[in-house]
Fold:
Amino acid sequence: MGELVALTKKDLKILLRDKTGFFFTFFFPLIYAIFFGTIFGSFGGGGSGTISIAVVDADKTKTSRAFTESLRGTPELDVVEMGRDEAVELVRRGGKVAYVALPKGFGVQRDGMLWGEPPTIEIGLDPSRQAETGMLKGLLTKCVFEGMQDLLTDPDKMHDQIEDWVASIKADENVDPMARTALLIFLPAVDTYFQSKPREKAVADGEAAGESGGAAGFQPIVFESTSVARQWDRPKNSYQISFPQGIIWGVLGCSAAFGISLVTERTKGTLVRLRMAPIGRWQILGGKAGACAVTTFALMCVLFTLGTVAFKLRPSSIGLLVLAMACVSLCFVGIMLLLSVLGKTEQAAGGIGWAVLMVMAMLGGGMVPAFFMPSWMQTVSHVSPVKWAILAMEGAIWRGFSPSEMVLPCVILVGVGAGCSVIGVRAFSWTEQS
Structure:
């Protein structure tokens, strides 16, 4: 064990003497984290300007489907249709701004709103987001009026709709007799009027009615608001995103540096001289792995401490964060051992190693946060250990992972590290020629 500790100290001293390597190991990740944290923070969480909602269609009628499609066609809305329980949970966890529920009977109420009660729409939204509530209600009302404008600008659609209205009035026993008599006279007269008008005139009148917002005092829709208690699972500031990314670059730098140092010691004969000493091969590689593990773990401790003090990272669980850092260290120690066998010379090992690490970083969210990526790229990112390293750190910082939720990324990280270690040790060459 004494030999292993001595070899570990030797590699740490070499790292500290290399001023350039020390800078890129400890200070470059800090500059990255602060720089991109400031950039992300300047956006102020404004997003793309759209309101992301979930639509729950419990009516499943032609009218409700048409209304859902009109919502999809609204540029200010990002619409996904799903079940009610899923929609409520998504809003509660912050995945959607609100859910819009079309209850059973929505289609009948919408078609009969001239003589009956206006249709009702339920909106489930966090009560603290009143600005989005007002804008969403305005967009929903706009979609209702756009549907009416379509009727006013197309005599054929108006004819078909009036036939449906007349049939509904005759079949609905709850309609007031006086209203029924009046509507059965009025609606056919409206149909005759629209059929007799030139199409250009009908279009112009319909557009004018749409611009005026409809008849004064007419209520086309009723909103029922439901409060959804939000469980905050988003970063409280941009540095909670950028610091894990910056730290990953430091970890990648450690893996590359220690992997290249093994190649250097092999090409310069250092490993041959070490083999002549009364120490085993596992102690030599173990010392290198220990130095890499200590450096990566110390790097993460220093940067997270600085982030907590100066940039309000405030991890949700210190214990889980320590666990995540340990698993990240083990993973990239294994990757370091694998990188050391990818090239026979320092230049080849450095070029190939950094190429591999850059691909891992690009796919895993080390350059651009994963939630900014397209959905297909987020799926592909599962193959990158960088993705699981960032997820483990974010889980302990702002995602609020429970111990059971932390198991998956940690097991993957340890598994990748163990697998790479086995391959790297078995393929390792102790001399330049072998």
Observations:
- The two ends are 28 Å apart (CA to CA).
- DSSP finds 17 helices and five strands in the chain.
